[in-house]
Amino acid sequence: MIIIQNEFLFVSIKLRGAELDSIFHKQYQLEYLWSGDPAVWGKKSPVLFPIVGALKNDTYYFEDHPYELSRHGFAREHDFEIMQQAGTSVSLSLKSNESTLRQFPFAFKLIITYTVVENALSVSYKVINEDNKVMYFSIGGHPAFKVPLAKDSAYEDYYLEFDKKENAGRWPVSPEGLIESLPVPLLENSHRLKLTHALFHEDALVFKHLASHQVSLKSEKSTHGFTFDFAGFPYLGIWSAKNADFVCIEPWYGIADNVIGNQQLAEKEGILKLEAAQHFESAWSVELF
């Protein structure tokens, strides 16, 4: 387990999947990350790479060759290596290998950097194309935050508040994990979304191209919550397992296959295109209060 910390935060990260294991606020004596109960959902904050979401039949095609990839890709299943570490920051890397090349025919290096600054944790992704051809990929985060945060409050006491009023529908997720072709109305000139367990009984809330760059977890019954910054990410998922006491805020560069998609990787909605020897960078952050 890797530890980074400052006077406010204690953060631990696993080498397997470079996955967050704890975000603990020392002064509040409060854990913000979900416990990872395997009876409900055993993950806490998987890294989504080289795809986000599900593929149709778990298969995509590149240069007329079929490749199989399970939902959210393989990064969460591999051990990362420590590149450099200081008291408040650590960078972890994953390089392509024989196993990844069977599923994803590109030479790459993925670098994830975790940094704590005062009450905030920032998470940055850097993808380097080490191949001699164009690489197509997606990347995203999947952190699960504990709800309720206060012992004397309930899940339904909390709400999500966007920094701008939104007119945005949710894009339904099919039983196979694919994105339906038409959105369903949800936010109508509103910036607030009340949390209920029923909200996620039909899988995640998927949004495309929101006006907001931030979303906050708040409650009238607790002073504690967080503000999550996802500026630059074109897609946002919000999810919880059925009747579970957490909420995932998921910033995505990429999205699951559409139900009518053609499974061609280069034509996939939201796919990123990276030229040989070039790199891509993005980051999200969460500030705790």
What would you note in describing this structure?
The chain has 289 residues and is mostly beta strands. The chain is globular and about 55 Å long. The protein has a 9-stranded antiparallel beta sheet, with no helix packed on it. Strands 12, 13, 16, 19 and 20 form a 5-stranded antiparallel beta sheet that branches. The protein has one domain: Beta-galactosidase, Chain A, domain 5.
User: Which CATH first-tier class would you pick?
Assistant: Mainly Beta
- Which fold does the CATH topology refer to? Beta-galactosidase, Chain A, domain 5
Low-confidence stretches: none
Coarse shape: globular
* Average pLDDT: 97
Order of SSEs: EEEEEEEEHEEEEEEEEEEEEEE
Measured as a percent range, the helix fraction is under 10%
Major beta sheet, strand line-up = 7-8-9-10-22-18-17-14-15
Radius of gyration: 19 Å
CATH architecture classification name: Distorted Sandwich
- How much of the residues is beta strand, in percent? over 45%
The tally of structural domains comes to: 1
Major beta sheet summary = 9 strands, antiparallel
User: How many DSSP-defined strands?
Assistant: 22
Terminal CA distance? 25 Å
The DSSP helix count reads 1
Structural class: mainly beta
